[in-house]
Amino acid sequence: MKRKTTLSLVALFLALVSCSQKIKVQSGSFDFLKGQKEINVIFDYTGVTFYSKNLTEEEYISKRSDEIKDKNPEEDWAKTWQEYKDTKFPNKFFASANKNINKNTLVFSKDKITPYTLIVKTEWIKPGSPGWSKAEVSIIDFGLN
């Protein structure tokens, strides 16, 4: 890793989808991405907390599963949550990011080998409508240029 530029997102996923994301560059610039056609994205939920009570992911899954079981005993909400993390959140991120960036310039993808990888580390989520979240985003240079 030659270069690491850390960015702070005030709102992630749902805010990104609604095009109201705010990005604060903490160090460096985006100049190194000039000429890149694609960037790999990794989503990291390690240590994420929920609500103002800062519930752990396990506590959130337990709480939400209990709420759902009261309404629909057959639903496996923990499985649904995992599908959101693995598929639905990334797909919304990619759809919004790729829509709002000139596709001839840069495309965000998952599971690609690219010189740069964007790591989206979600720190906090307030589920619901509107949903809010906070994440740290890092761009890693793997020196493949």
Give descriptors for this structure.
single chain; 145 residues; alpha/beta; 8-stranded mixed β-sheet; 3 helices; 8 strands
Write down the secondary-structure element order: EHEEEEHHEEE
Structural class: alpha/beta
Main sheet record: 8 strands, mixed
Report the sheet-strand fraction: 25-35%
Rg of Cα set = 17 Å
Q: Which runs of at least 5 residues are low in confidence (pLDDT < 50)?
A: 1-21
* Portion in helices: 25-40%
Count of individual helical segments:
3
Shape label: elongated
| Beta strands, count | 8
Distance between the termini: 12 Å
How does this model look, in words?
The model is unreliable at 1-21 (pLDDT under 50). A hairpin with a 5-residue loop joins strand 7 (116-126) and strand 8. The chain has helices spanning 14-17, 57-71, 77-100, and strands at residues 4-9, 23-25, 38-44, 49-50, 55-56, 107-109, 116-126, 132-141. The protein is α/β, with parallel strands linked by helices.
What is this entry, summarized?
Helices cover 30% and strands 30% of the residues. The protein has 145 residues and is an alpha/beta fold.
Topology record:
Blueprint: E1 4-9, H1 14-17, E2 23-25, E3 38-44, E4 49-50, E5 55-56, H2 57-71, H3 77-100, E6 107-109, E7 116-126, E8 132-141
Parallel strand pairs: 3-6, 3-7, 4-7
Antiparallel strand pairs: 1-2, 1-8, 4-5, 7-8
